Amino acid sequence: MNIDIIGAGIGGLTTAIALEQKGIKTRIFEQAEQIKPVGAGIILANNAMQVYEKLGLRKLIEENGNPISSMNITKSSLKPLSKIDLSYFEQKHNTKNIAIHRGTLQQILIDKLISTKINLDHKLTSIVENTNGYSLEFENGERIQSSTVLGADGLNSVVRQNLFPNNSIRNANQICWRGITEYELPIKFRNELNEAWGKSERFGFVQIAQNKVYWYALKSFKKNIKEFSIHDLEQYFSDYNSVIKGIIKSTKKEQINTAEISDLKPTNIWYKENVCLIGDSAHATTPNMGQGACQAIEDAYVLSECLSKYKTTKAFSEYQNLRLPKAHQVVKASWLVGKMAHLTNPVLIGLRNQMLRLTPSSVNRKQNEQIFQLAKI
To answer: Keywords for this entry (predicted)?
Structure first.
C-alpha cells in the first residue's frame, strides 16, 4: 500500500511515522518552501503523549519540553478559579503532559521518519478522481497520480473543499495573539498552564523550556470591528497580574503571531472511497481545550492501526466510527468554553466564576478521563 499525505504539520508527520512503523509506504506533500520553526508552543496532553509512547518518542519529547502537572483557570489577578491536577493521569498512564516549542516537536518528528520523503513547495490546488485513483495538481505545475490520499492540510483543507463540499467554517469572532519570550517565571508557575479570564478577553502562559515562556492572548471583537493591533496588547491586559504584563512587555513585537479564531462546524463524513481526512481537515477546533494537535495525533494512531488490519475503505470507515464521537465532543466543548471565557455581563461573569469555583475536582477529573482515554482498537 502507498499513501500520499497532504500536509507536513503535526498530524501529517505523526501519521507518516505511525504508518511507516506498520510497513506502509508514504509520501508527504507540503505547501511551504521550507519548514520553519513557528513561533508558538504546544501542549501535548496525556492522550497525545500515550501515542508518542507507542511510537517510541515519549522520552525524547520529554527531554526537549517541560512537564505540566496542573491546568488552572484564574481571574485576571491569577487568583485560581479552577484547578485540574494532572498527576493522577500521569500515574495512571505513565506519561506526563509536556509543553514544548512547536518547531522543536516538528523537527523531532521529521528526524523520526526513515523512508518517507517530504516534498516541499507542493501546494495542492485540486484533487480529481479518475479511473486509476486520483490526480493531484499542485501550484508548482506538477501533477501526480495517487491511489490513496490523506488530507492533513488543516482548517482550509483543499482536499476537503474538493471532495467533501458540504462543510462550513465558523468564525468565533475572537483574535488570538501567540508569542514566545525569554522570561523567568516565578517558581510556582513553572510546571503549570495558567489561563486568566477577564471580560471579553483572556491570557494563557506556560513554560516550554528553561526561562522560555509560550503565551497566547485572545480578545473578542464585533463582527465589523476587529482588534488586530499588537501595539495595544499591553493596554488590553493592563488590569492583569504583573506576571502577565511582564510576559507581554518582554516579547519582541515582530515575533508575535496574530490570527482569527475559527473552527470547522462538525461534519459526519470524513472519507470517500480512498481519500480520508485527518486532524484539522476533519475536525478543526478552537484552541480552548488545548486539544487541536492532540486530536490529530490520536487520529494518526487510530488510522494506522485500522490500515494495518483492514483494506483501505473498511479502515477509513472503522477510523471514522472510532474517532468521530470524541473529536466532535472536543469541538463542541471547546466552542462552549470559548464563549464562556469571553462573557461581558458582570453578573454572568460572577455566576461563571462561582460555578468554576464550586465544580468538584471529581467532575473535572471525569471530563478529562474521557479526553485522555485512547480508543480501544
So the answer is: Monooxygenase, Oxidoreductase
**Pairing relation of β-strands 41-44 and 169-182?**
unpaired
Exposure string (b/e) for 181-208, b if CB count within 10 Å is 16 or more?
bebebeeebbbbbbbbbbebbbbbbbbb
Helices (H), 131-173: 158-163
Would you give the DSSP letter of residue 39?
Answer: S
CB 266 within 8 A of CB 329: no
Convert the pLDDT of each residue in 105-154 to its tens digit.
Answer: 999 999 999 999 999 999 999 999 999 899 999 999 999 999 999 999 99
- Beta strands 2-6; 149-151: pairing state: parallel
Element spanning 180, H or E:
strand 169-182
What pairing do the DSSP bridges indicate for beta strands 192-197 and 70-75?
parallel
Sheet of 117-119, strands arranged across: 117-119, 25-29, 2-6, 149-151, 275-277, 271-272
